[in-house]
Specification:
mainly alpha
Amino acid sequence: MTGQDGGSGDGRSHGRDETADERADRRWTELLQELRVAQTGVQILFGFLLTVVFQSRFPGLSSADRTLYTVTVMLGAATTGALIAPVSLHRLLTGRRMKPETVAWASRATLLGLVLLLCTMASALLLVLRVALPDGTALWLVVAMATWFVLWWFALPVWAARDAGKPDVAVDVDDRAPGSPGRPE
């Protein structure tokens, strides 16, 4: 007989022999591995962006390019904040028996960080290509690259989840806090 959690009635579910706490621990470990990859790239990009203002060509940028630079740096800062948020969540919520909720919020912050990273990269590409290219092709190249990122980072995972008949990848049903709407009880 199966329990309400879809498992055997002993708190285990999801096709694995793990409790909800074990699942939260596993998902937290997986999320940390994903964050290590994303954070490294963001740190390099953000570090580069912070040095641009000190380059000799910076004073020669147009007002529009300076505005684009400012937007890009702010997006980079927001991206860094979103991708580091899971660390703060974990540190401040450790010991409160909130691991599943912590993993859910950390997953959401990571997804937000990826969206912001897409925006940061598109903005940085536009800034660089506007300076490097003599005509208006920069915008078209950035649109093409942003589309490429959207396809690989978001569309492919959503398509793969739907193709496999799994719940939406953005927020798995089990990531929702106990008692929240839509969560099976």
